[in-house]
Amino acid sequence: MIQRLNRGFNLIIAFCLFLAAAVVLLVSTCTTIYYNMHDENDWPHYGSENIPLLLILVAAVFVILTLLYKKRVFEKAGLLTVISLTFILGYCLMLILSISPRAVNDSDLIDEVINQFAIRDYSSLTEPGGYLFTWPFQLGYVRFGQIMHRLFGPSNYFAWDMVQLLSIIVTVFLLNRITWELFEDKVICGIMSVIACGALFFYNYVTYIYGDILSMAPQTLALYMMILYLKREKIRYGTMSAVSIAVSVLIKTNCEIALIALLMTLILSIITGIVKAAPDKKTEISGKKLFSGLIVGALLVVMTFAFKGAVNSYYADLTGLDAIPAGSPSWSHIAMGLQDEGGLEPGWYNGYNYHVFSANGYDSDATAKAAKENIMETFSDFVKRPLHAGKFFMRKFTTQWADSVCISTHNLDLVSRHVDKESPLRDYLVFGSDKGCPLLIWIMNVFMPVCYIGVAVYLFGILKGRSVSHQEMLILILIFGGIVFHEFWEGSSRYAMRYYIYWLPYAAYGINNLLKNRGIDK
Question: Most-buried pick from 83, 298, 312, 448 (CB within 10 A)?
Answer without folding.
Answer: 448
